[in-house]
């Protein structure tokens, strides 16, 4: 089992990365607060799958190739920036709309699949995630890795990312959190929209 010891270092880096505030945290938090616990968990599944996909791509050198090919990396950053601006605009336009109870029809407008897709695309459109995963493979994975390393890293990446954001969803979807969000919804949503827009603009102009 010592040949797999490097997986513990990878898990530690992935945990720190998952806990760092960013676009994924905001979309999970907002879906948990404004929709339901199930929507937050569905978003967490999407973010976890996004990291796992990057892990598989990194194992084949795809993420490193994107970074080294200026045109490909530029297109990746443009896609990520435009998508974050789109999410920011949606949140900003809905900032002043009242928060409805989970049982009301409008609260179900966003399907669980849409929440999952939002989490997946938000994570997959983040160049920072791609670079972190590529760096992890370069720094920790041996030149001749043991069997099934790719799938083990992908599974670890999914488990850590999903577990963290599922915990966020569980904590923020409680009655007290939703009550506080209802009182400060306009401020929270506007701030979240500004943050996401700033990250998107930074990607486009960096």
What is this structure, in a nutshell?
The chain has 206 residues and is mostly helical.
Write up what this structure looks like.
The structure is a single chain. This protein is an all-alpha fold. The protein has one domain. It has 10 helices and no strands. Helix 2 runs antiparallel to helix 6 and helix 5 packs antiparallel against helix 10. The radius of gyration is 18 Å and the shape is globular. About 3% of the residues have low confidence.
Specify Rg, calculated over alpha carbons: 18 Å
Q: Give the overall form.
A: globular
User: What amount of the residues lies in strands?
Assistant: under 5%
Structural class: mainly alpha
Q: List the helices and strands in order.
A: HHHHHHHHHH
* Main sheet: strands, sense, barrel: none
Subunit organisation of the chains: single chain
Overall mean confidence score, pLDDT: 83
Number of domains: 1
Low-confidence stretches: 102-108
Number of helices: 10
Number of strands: 0
- Helix proportion: over 70%
Distance between the termini: 43 Å
Topology summary:
Layout: H1 6-19, H2 23-34, H3 37-59, H4 62-68, H5 70-93, H6 112-124, H7 127-140, H8 149-172, H9 175-183, H10 185-205
Helix pairs in contact: 1-7, 1-8, 2-3, 2-6, 2-8, 3-6, 3-7, 3-8, 5-10
Features:
78% helix; mainly alpha; 10 helices; 206 residues
């Amino acid at each position: 089992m010592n040949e797999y010891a490097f997986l513990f270092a990878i898990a530690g880096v992935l945990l720190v990365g998952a806990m760092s505030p960013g676009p994924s945290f905001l979309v999970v938090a907002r879906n948990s607060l404004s929709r339901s616990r199930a929507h937050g968990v569905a978003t967490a599944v999407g973010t976890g799958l996004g990291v796992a996909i990057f892990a598989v791509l990194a194992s084949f050198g795809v993420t490193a190739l994107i970074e080294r090919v200026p045109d490909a990396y530029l297109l990746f950053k443009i896609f990520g920036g435009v998508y974050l601006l789109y999410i920011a605009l949606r949140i900003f336009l809905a900032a002043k709309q009242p928060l409805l109870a989970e049982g009301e029809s409008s609260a179900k407008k966003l399907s669980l699949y849409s929440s999952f897709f939002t989490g997946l695309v938000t994570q997959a459109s983040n160049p920072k995630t791609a670079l972190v995963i590529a760096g992890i493979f370069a720094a920790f994975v041996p030149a001749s890795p043991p069997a099934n390393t790719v799938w083990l890293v992908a599974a670890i990446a999914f488990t850590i990312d999903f577990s963290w954001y599922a915990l966020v969803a569980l904590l923020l979807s409680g009655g007290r959190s939703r009550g506080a969000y209802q009182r400060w919804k306009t401020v929270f949503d506007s701030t979240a929209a500004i943050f996401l827009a700033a990250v998107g603009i930074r990607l486009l102009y960096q």
